[in-house]
Amino acid sequence: MSEGDAGGRLVRPFTLTGGRTRPSRADFALITTVTAVDPPPARAPRPQPEHLRILKLCAEPMAVAELAARLDLPVSVVVILLCDLLEAGRITARAPHPVTRSAPDLDLLQKVREGLGRL
Amino acid sequence: MAGSEHAAPAAPDAVKILIAGGFGVGKTTMVGSVSEIAPLRTEEPLTVAGLGVDDLAGIEEKRSTTVALDFGRITIGRDLVLYLFGTPGQQRFWFMWNDLAVGALGAVVLLDVRRPESSFAAIDFFERRNIPFVVGVNGFHGRHPYPPEEIRQALALPERVAVVLCDARERASARDVLIALVDRLIADADGRADEGGRIR
Ligand SMILES: Nc1nc2c(ncn2[C@@H]2O[C@H](COP(=O)(O)OP(=O)(O)O)[C@@H](O)[C@H]2O)c(=O)[nH]1
Ligand SMILES: [Mg+2]
InterPro entries recorded for this chain (chain A) (predicted)? Predict the structure, then answer.
């Protein structure tokens, strides 16, 4: 019993989520925008090297696809790393603008149109 | 952001447009000519792209296949970014388009005027899924032997699908194709408002 307890303490703290929902891959689309939380939360675990590379890149907001390209890693791998970071409170993730064909966002479309016109 | 103790730069809102079409029609070229960054490439190994075993039938010969996606970025404003994705051209990568198409505003189907048939599959894809698209006719070497109307008829495209002659290498030309798409989206949105939200 006591041996089991000792083993339990080796588990990294942020994997012990106590019923909180773990972030899932579904939280990250190709154009989900990821931003490092700065300063990092007080009791954040020391990030792994790959996590650190991500945190550096997204000091300014960066899309998941761009992170993957700059890290030269498959998107699916980057998303797993991002789940870790989100869970540890080290990044925030902004979902893409929702697109519904039945209720298009005219304001948004006009903004895009004007932006392209300025190119 | 209420209650956030950490001052992070505000993430912009993000939208995307797909650039589709057959292999070698100029997709990467078009992404590059309008993007503010050099087109980036990301690789996704097939096995982790959410494939069932059946889907792999026919491509067993390429064991370590990866799917390459090109993408570019256009900052529309401080709070809005448009991403462009060049879709994988080979037919065996169609399954990727489903994922890519989710949440896209619409698509540009690029066509090499010398071999239009290489983009038929892309046209079918967006037609079947009711995803708004325009056709950009890339005139290689700047040659445009057919007027847009003739191309529309040959492709049996309805009036609402714009056919735009372009040169994928030219920024202004590539931009105009994107604008044609957004104009169509705006017209659709206006039409919907007029019809009281009825779809069709
Ligand atoms: N002459 C000419 N060459 C083009 C044009 N568009 C693309 N290309 C070339 O055609 C080749 C294929 O283009 P690419 O953008 O890679 O096609 P993709 O497979 O659709 O991404 C490249 O060597 C391009 O430089 C064009 O408008 N005119
Ligand atoms: Mg290409």
Answer: DUF742
Tell which one of B27, B29, B33 to mutate to probe ligand 1, the residue whose CB is within 8 A of the most ligand atoms: B29
What sign does the dihedral B144-B148-B154-B156 (CA atoms) show? Answer: positive
- For residue B177, the enclosing domain spans 13-195
CA–CA separation, A68 and A49 (whole Å): 15
> Does the pLDDT of residue A76 top 90, yes or no?
no
Q: Provide the terminal-to-terminal Cα distance of chain B, rounded to the nearest Å.
A: 38
pTM: 0.85
Whether the predicted pLDDT of A41 surpasses 80: yes
* Per-residue tokens: B123: 């046209």
* Conformational region of residue A108, where left means phi above 0, alpha means psi within -120 to 50, and beta covers everything else: alpha
Atom from ligand 1 closest to the CA of residue B25: 20
Q: Is residue B35 part of a domain?
A: yes
pLDDT digits (tens, 9 = 90+) for B77-122: 989 999 999 987 666 677 677 878 889 999 999 999 889 999 999 9
Q: Is B87 in the pocket of ligand 1 (CB under 6 A)?
A: no
Nearest to A85 by CA among A42, A51, A59: A51
CATH number of the domain to which B93 belongs: 3.40.50.300
Tell if the CB–CB gap between A101 and B80 is shorter than 8 Å.
no
Burial letters B92-117, b for 16+ CB under 10 A, else e: ebebbbeebbebbbbbbbbbbbeebe
- Residue B147, amino acid: P
Q: Which residues of A touch B40 (CB under 8 A)?
A: 65-66, 69-70
